[in-house]
Amino acid sequence: MKSFLIGLGFGVGLGLLFAPMSGEETRRNLTDKANDLADSARETTDDIKDRVRSGISAIRGGVERAAGAVERATGTEA
Q: Most buried one in 16, 25, 52, 66, CB count within 10 A?
C-alpha cells in the first residue's frame, strides 16, 4: 500500500509538471478539486451523523418498548 501511495504521489507530481495548463490554471483546478473534495467529505460526514442519530433513536425506541412490555408482563413500573 505504501508503494502504491508513493507511486501515486510521483504520478501526480509528474502530471502537474508536464500538464499543458499554465501554473495559474493548475492551481485553480487544484483549488476547485480540493474544495469539491472537502464538500463531499462534509456531506458524507453529515450523512453518517444522520444515520447514527436515526439508529440511536431506533434502538432507544426498541428499548423503551421492551421495557414497557416487561413492566406490563411483571405488573411493575420503573
A: 16
Write the single-letter amino acid at 11: G
Taking residues 24-34, what's their average pLDDT?
85
For residue 61, the surrounding DSSP H or E stretch is helix 23-74
pTM: 0.54
* CB contact burial 16-32 (16+ within 10 A = b; e otherwise): eeeeeeeeeeeeeeeee
Q: What letters, b where the CB count within 10 A reaches 16 and e where it falls short, cover 58-69?
A: eeeeeeeeeeee
DSSP string, 11-23: HHHHHHHT-SS-H
Q: How many CB atoms lie within 10 A of CB 33?
A: 10
The per-residue DSSP string of 23-34 comes to HHHHHHHHHHHH
